[in-house]
Amino acid sequence: MDAESEKSTSLQQTSKAKTNEGYQSKKSFDNIYIALAAILIVAVVVYLAYFYYNNHREPKVRIQPKNCFAETLTVVTDIDYNPFSYVNAEGQYAGFDVELINEVANRLEMNLDLKLMNWSDAQKAVFSQEAQVILNMETDYVAQDQSIISTLPTVEKQYVIYGREIVSSITQLYGRRVASLHSLPALGLNREITYLPSYKEIFDGLKNGDFDFAVCPIQVGNYFLGKLKLTDVHPSYAVSHVYGAMVLLESNRELRDRINPILRDLWREGFFAYLTEKWVHHYYVNTTFKDYITRHPWIWPSAFLIILTAALAIMYLRSKARERTAREEYARQAKYIETIEFQRQKLIEANRASEQRTLEISEALISILGARDPNLNGHSQHVQNLTLLLYEHLPQTLRSGINRSDLSYAALFHDVGKMGIPESILNKPSKLDDDEWAIMKKHPQISTEILSSVSSFKTIEKWVLYHHERIDGHGYYNVPGELIPFAAKMIAIADTYSAITMRRSYKDPKSHEQAVTVLQEIKGKQLDSELVDIFCAIDQDELLRCAPANLGAFRKW
């Protein structure tokens, strides 16, 4: 009776200690959670501040022309085509096209003579051969004029209709006043459109009420909405999708052919993505977001207060709830310590019994396979032991991604699909013909079909399926070496060594030395070079203990 009382007291003390320990652990966790939540809130505030600052400062052209070469590249473009080309507040050339042509000129190893001017003057400069290149002309116009040619596209633009009214069709513009920089014959608005020399004049006219609508690339138009504070003007209907490119006279075809490879390289290097993010998205995304916030000034403080209040409330309620239930929860857990431990031991025993039954069934299945094909008698267990031996000699970095038990079953069952191959093919003493060989090559697929009925073997299906694949990609299914599972490469080495050293009805066994020589000859072509070197470095006695005659003594599960 005293012993029972002492045992009960001991259990109560253990339970109380664990309860206090759990409570302290929970309290520490709550403090960590609150600290992380506070850090998250601060991070959000810092991010929003950075976002605001980063999107409200004007980008700078990072790349400057070197201008130390023998040749000079003369280039013109629009002076008022933000964000592609414009003069910034400091009087410097800026924009997507400016930074692009600076980089292109440097790669051409040519000095850059860049001039920004009205678009009409820029076109005249090219046609009068005062300049070699004009930037960002729509490729549609190039197709209409045989005297000019274009490079690869450098930018993608969407022309939309801007106005105080939202339109959903071109027909809504009939009889209205429309401004545009370029001719738009396909729209049928010749009577309505007034052509102006710059987008600045177009949006000034829109602001002053001289025009009802304007047709403009959305990237450029959004810039002018922000610059002129046109909060009541919006983009609506998209009228065309075009590409801009560098345009040259036909006589400058050789220069065009030098520029195109550079543009291809810049696309591949991600330079255009960088320019788009820096210049086009800067105005396209930020302006619409800024306009929305300008129209709804309460969003910033309201969103911040809601997020902050909700976060603090959630943290506080979670902390209090855990504090109330921590002691009770851990007290209940302590009460069932003995029961949990008892059930754990039962589960361990049941798991061992299950593994033993799986082992017995596996051995029976492999025995049946050996009975059908005497050449395979002991081969599966041999490959299994060789594979596990190779696994034990792998560096920890290579071994960490492979479950040893899964590898053991995969090696054991690698040839189980041969149960589906006719005995006339399995036991044929002479060389298989093409049709018979095609049937034989199906055994990995049959193996996976057999294994697929066991849910715990899902991981090993591809290991078994690809154990006859080659590093050079000329295996059964022509799988490239880099796609062959690492475990399948291990099984392939063990399978090859076993096939060489075991006696078959149609051949005598070869020695360990001969097998190692063969493995070294085919590594890098059929087998993985690194794994072959590790396998061949294993002591010969260890490999010989894997032989079928030693299966009972060597088996490792």
The CATH C-level name of the largest domain is: Alpha Beta
Count of domains:
3
Helix share, percent? 55-70%
Reported by name, the CATH topology of the largest domain is D-Maltodextrin-Binding Protein, domain 2
The CATH superfamily of the largest domain is identified as Bacterial extracellular solute-binding protein, family 7
Main sheet attributes: strand count, strand direction, barrel closure: 8 strands, mixed
Number of helices, counting only DSSP H or I runs of 4 residues or more: 22
Based on Cα principal axes, name the global outline: extended
Give the radius of gyration.
38 Å
Strands of the widest sheet, in order across it, are 5-1-6-11-7-10-8-9
The structural class is: alpha/beta
Query: How big a fraction of the residues is strand?
Result: 5-15%
CATH architecture of the largest domain: 3-Layer(aba) Sandwich
Calculate the terminal CA-CA distance, rounded to whole Å: 46 Å
- The overall average pLDDT, rounded, is 81
Strand count:
11
Q: Low-confidence parts lasting 5 or more residues at pLDDT below 50?
A: 1-5, 552-557
The assembly state of the depicted protein chains is single chain
